[in-house]
Amino acid sequence: MRIALAGLATSHPYTDARTLARHAELTVWEQDPERLARFVAEHPRAKVAGGLDELLAVEPDGVVLTVPNPQAPAALGAVLRTGAPVFMNKPAAASREQLDALDRLDITDRVLSTSVLRFAPAFAGVRVDPAEVLAVRATVRHDVGIWATGYNPWQDTPGQGGGTIVTMGVHGVELLVALLGPDVRLAGAAGAVRHYDGLRSEDTGVMALRWGSGITGTVEIIGVSEDEAYTVTVHTRDGSREIAIEAGDDHLKGLGYEGTVDAFLDMVGGAPSPVPWEQTRAILEVLISAREAVPTH
């Protein structure tokens, strides 16, 4: 089996490769020499391609796509033309222009784009009866201080990578849409810099959501945190149910990285994406609407 890693723009493809290397021969392309060298040092048997076209010319069985968001629509279009299944690391779009460009592509059930948390063991089997739900809340605790040092500035730039409210907020919105479906819209959003003064975006944020059924939801983003953890709370008349997602002793398993790769490998074997694009599109609409609603400094 041949898996192509198209871009190493974030930490995620490095993590994905640790699981994929147990199942497949890896080929990689990355624009930044330092990021590429780091990958090759960890995976010396990986083949290196000189460009995206060269990477796709090896006819991979599947593609993991992780390029800076402004490049993502064109790169996804190139991958789609090969017919190979693709796992597009989150978020698939971070601005209205990028989302409009994705909307012009023929995205089929051979495309998976998701927060890995959807596949975390603590969450993957959770089901709720929407008729019993009054409201829901997702809390995302993931430190963003590394951006204040100048690392990956495009991620922290609202018009490019979306900043904290998009890049970290996707985790919370993803979990709530996984529970309640894609008939959701943004009702309001706010953000602030509370600690990391060097940021282009924000280090805390909140989104208010409303589903067509009338259920309301809240996504809290805490970007100043010693620990990485995620919590979903489901409120019903009988009380509140809390679902906690933590790394534990094995963060690849505990945070859903392994489960996501397993789902992608099922797609390589012929299965459709387990996350319908309708859900991914709804998540992106909420996130980009929130980005548009939150002033930047």
From TrEMBL:
Pfam family of the protein (one): GFO_IDH_MocA_C3
Alphabetized GO MF terms: nucleotide binding
Cross-referenced InterPro entries: Gfo/Idh/MocA-like_OxRdtase_N, GFO_IDH_MocA-like_dom, NAD(P)-bd_dom_sf
Domain GFO/IDH/MocA-like oxidoreductase: 132-240
Limits of the Gfo/Idh/MocA-like oxidoreductase N-terminal domain: 19-104
The protein's name: Putative dehydrogenase
